[in-house]
Write a structure and sequence with these properties.
By secondary structure, the protein is of the alpha/beta class. It has two domains: 172 residues, Lyase, Ornithine Decarboxylase, Chain A, domain 1 (Beta Barrel), CATH 2.40.37.10; 247 residues, TIM Barrel. The protein is 27% helix and 25% strand. It is built from twelve helices and 21 strands. The strands form three sheets. Strands 4, 14, 15, 16, 17, 18, 19, 20 and 21 form a nine-stranded mixed β-sheet that branches. Helix 2 runs parallel beside helix 9 and helix 5 crosses helix 6. The chain is globular. The N and C termini lie far apart (49 Å). The protein binds pyridoxal-5'-phosphate (PLP).
């Protein structure tokens, strides 16, 4: 459920016509809905409230500091994967006690920054990392808490590039090795290994992979407890899927909670979740204008003013984004986020960008109402891993970000300028 809807054949973000934002801010542009962000955050928080769970929003999916501020005000914690994300979390007023630091390759500066900020915990992914954190904490005269990321070897049934919880993945340590790791680091001077972390992949549409992973971790924690380890928390990770192809593709988080809450209730350790996509995915769209039309062989191309540098998911993950005109005709289905709602006169087109790469596309062989130069298109479900993955490839300034709240909007990140492109190069 989001707040991007058609009224009188025109796409609105909350109470503002998308066309107005495009006209005033230009295209391409990312447009976020405050109400959608908050609704999705509260859905997660409410679903896991019976566990007293800490919700740590995964900054990497959409990390604008103004969005983080909005979430921090609601009591949301943060999952960070770099010094940059930690900086953003703190700048947004995030409570360090609700910040978790993940990532397979944290460098010394990042570890020190996390320790100095007094974050809740490090999610550790290797023995070498544990030893390094202990060493750095010692040098800083501090003691820190960490969790071991275990690889529960479950198949989340998602894209190979976003599968993280299988044995062959670079993430975490195999769950059957976890006990040995806990034994080995039972009494480090400056590091207390006191938690278990999983993150099986993303987007995960089924509940079963979570249940399977959680059960394996619960059993592991029972065995660790029996060996005298004091486990303080279990971080279940993120990955909850969202609706890309239809309004019923993904389960609401309450469906995940139905099975996970009974499993995790009344445990003597704290529970954390790290949702990113679920909160941000449907809270953002990207608006782009049709530049040119052309044909090539049997193909019809709609060339738009956004490129793969602005939104890389279609070409990186073969991801599907619903794309639809911001202004529709009476015969067009309004904004139903489904693959199969084109009008009778739909064209089959490739929607492509201006970047010098064959992979620069948003949709291939897509049925779309007829469009012409100047038409505004909305790329839906672009809130997560959209702007966050944008780059300057082809020396294209990155697009602005706009946050809508009711009938007003704020530009929360300016469009980059040509000067911005060369500024760091000035000798
Ligand atoms: C990316 C990531 C998340 C968030 O995944 P979503 O699919 O956006 O919910 C959570 N935890 C870890 C460790 C991650 O790497």
């Amino acid at each position: 459920m989001d707040f991007f809807n058609y009224r009188n054949n025109e796409l609105y973000c909350e109470d503002i016509p998308a066309a107005r934002i495009a006209a005033e801010v230009g295209t391409p542009v990312y447009v976020y809905s405050k109400a959608t962000f908050l609704r999705h955050y509260h859905q997660v928080a409410d679903a896991f409230a019976p566990l007293g769970a800490t919700i740590c929003y995964s900054i990497k999916c959409c990390g604008n500091v103004n969005i983080l501020k909005m979430l921090a005000r609601e009591g949301c914690g943060f999952d960070v994967t770099s010094a940059g994300e930690l900086f953003r979390a703190l700048r947004a007023g995030g409570d360090p006690k609700k910040i978790i630091f993940a990532g397979v390759g944290k460098n010394d500066d990042e570890i020190a920054a996390g320790i100095n900020a007094g974050i809740a915990a490090f999610n550790c992914e290797s023995e070498a990392e544990i030893e390094n954190i202990d060493r750095i904490a010692g040098a800083l005269g501090k003691t820190v808490v960490g969790a071991l990321r275990v690889n529960p070897d479950v198949d989340p049934k998602t894209h190979a590039k976003t599968t993280t919880g299988k044995k062959e993945s670079k993430f975490g340590v195999d769950i059957d090795r976890a006990e040995r790791v806990f034994e080995r680091y039972r009494s480090l001077a400056h590091f207390r290994l006191a938690g278990v972390h999983t993150h099986i992949g993303s987007p995960v549409l089924e509940v079963q992979p979570y249940v399977e992973a959680a059960q394996k971790v619960i059993d592991l924690i029972d065995r660790l407890t029996a060996r005298g380890h004091k486990i303080e928390w279990f971080d279940v990770g993120g990955g909850f899927g969202v609706n890309y192809t239809s309004l019923t593709q993904a389960k609401p988080v309450s469906e995940h909670a139905k099975l996970l809450v009974p499993l995790l209730k009344n445990k003597p350790y704290k529970i954390a979740f790290e949702p990113g996509r679920y909160i941000a995915g449907n809270a953002g769209i990207m608006l782009t204008r049709v530049q040119y039309r052309k044909t090539g062989g049997s193909k019809h191309f709609v060339i738009v003013d956004a490129g793969m540098n602005d939104l890389i998911r279609p070409t990186l993950y073969e991801a599907y984004h619903h794309i639809w005109p911001a202004k529709i005709r009476d015969i067009d289905t309004p904004g139903s986020r489904t693959k199969d709602a084109p009008p009778a006169d739909a064209e089959v087109v490739d929607i492509v960008g201006p970047v010098c790469e064959t992979g620069d596309y948003f949709a291939l062989d897509r049925r779309l109402p007829p469009t012409q130069r100047g038409d505004l298109l909305a790329v839906f479900t672009a809130g997560a891993y959209g702007f966050a993955m944008a780059s300057n490839y082809n020396n294209r300034p990155r697009p602005p970000e706009v946050l809508v709240g009711g009938s007003t909007y704020t530009v929360i990140r300016k469009r980059e300028t040509l000067e911005d492109l060369v500024r760091p190069e000035e000798a």
